[in-house]
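pinned: reference chain
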Amino acid sequence: MPEPYLMMTTTTSSEDEANRLAQSSVEARLAACVQVVGPIRSTYWWKGEVQREAEWLCLIKTTAAHFQALAAHIRAHHSYEVPEIVALPIVAGSPAYLQWISAEVNTGS
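pinned: its structure tokens
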């Protein structure tokens, strides 16, 4: 059975923070790739009020086995009190790309 793969997402308040989080996640071998998209416009409830802010979206490719460690890494390096940490299963993909994800996050394990 193939290894379960995930695309995790988080948002940040600045491009610099998103790039630092991307770099540290890849360097720690918790993610094979992080794409930073933005700015995006987010509308959300926070402390009883609707907020509208510019944010940067991080699309993080990893394996299910690395979810907990990557989630802890995001919490430790994120400026938000409650950062978005969401994981979606990758249900299909190029076999070569998926093998590449495995190879990159499992290097040094």
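why pinned: Residues 36 and 58 are 5 Å apart (CA to CA). The longest strand covers residues 49-63.
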